[in-house]
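TASK: fixed-backbone design
INPUT:
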């Protein structure tokens, strides 16, 4: 974290900091909430009501992944924030490495078992014979992209931990916009159905994650 950003966090008034850091986070999370809505809209117009039901069945599992990512991201960012505030940069770096490692391990632990038991999971969540294939097509791709979605959520929390709330907001907005652009391409142009909607979502998350990685690689 550069000295200017450190000075802002150390010296600005609490009220101003609260507004400056919370508003971008709120906007970013609101935009992220549009992910599933956008998929539902394009799936409904491009495929049909059965596909909407199939995609909706998967949402609870996506929320579980989101919650686990927040568990790691918020916990890690809290420790990093306190370490930076205390001037302990080495501890902040160590926690950052631990969070990234834990995120990778967690994504594997989620993806592999869920892919193995995908049929049972869909039945458990209420998939019927009319929507089953739509659900499976969507979930199989989403599970493969778990590593991208989980890392995206975690790194956004880490960005906010060092006061980079606007950068975190930008990445979330960019991800949603990319998803909006890719959805109609994969659904209407490539005729890939619910699988296309899932691919668009995963690609959007992967692209923005690469941008975040480039930010951290720059040494900032």
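OUTPUT:
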């Amino acid at each position: 974290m550069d000295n200017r950003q450190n000075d802002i966090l150390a010296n600005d008034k609490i009220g101003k900091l609260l507004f400056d850091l919370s508003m971008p986070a709120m906007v970013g999370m609101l935009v992220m909430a549009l992910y599933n809505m956008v998929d539902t809209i394009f799936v409904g117009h491009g495929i049909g009501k059965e596909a909407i039901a199939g995609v909706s069945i998967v949402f609870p599992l996506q929320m579980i992944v989101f919650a686990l990512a927040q568990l790691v991201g918020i916990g890690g960012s809290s420790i990093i924030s306190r370490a930076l505030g205390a001037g302990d940069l080495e501890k902040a770096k160590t926690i950052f490495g631990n969070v990234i490692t834990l995120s990778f391990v967690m994504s594997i632990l989620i993806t592999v078992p869920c892919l193995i038991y995908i049929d049972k999971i869909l039945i458990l969540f209420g998939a019927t014979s009319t929507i089953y294939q739509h659900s499976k097509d969507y979930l199989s791709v989403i599970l493969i992209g778990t590593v991208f979605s989980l890392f995206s959520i975690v790194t956004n929390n880490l960005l906010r931990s060092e006061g980079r709330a606007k950068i975190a907001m930008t990445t979330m907005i960019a991800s949603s916009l990319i998803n909006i652009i890719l959805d109609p391409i994969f659904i209407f142009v490539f005729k890939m159905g619910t699988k296309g909607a899932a691919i668009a979502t995963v690609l959007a998350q992967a692209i923005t994650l690469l941008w975040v990685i480039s930010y951290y690689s720059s040494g900032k």
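COMMENT: The radius of gyration is 19 Å.
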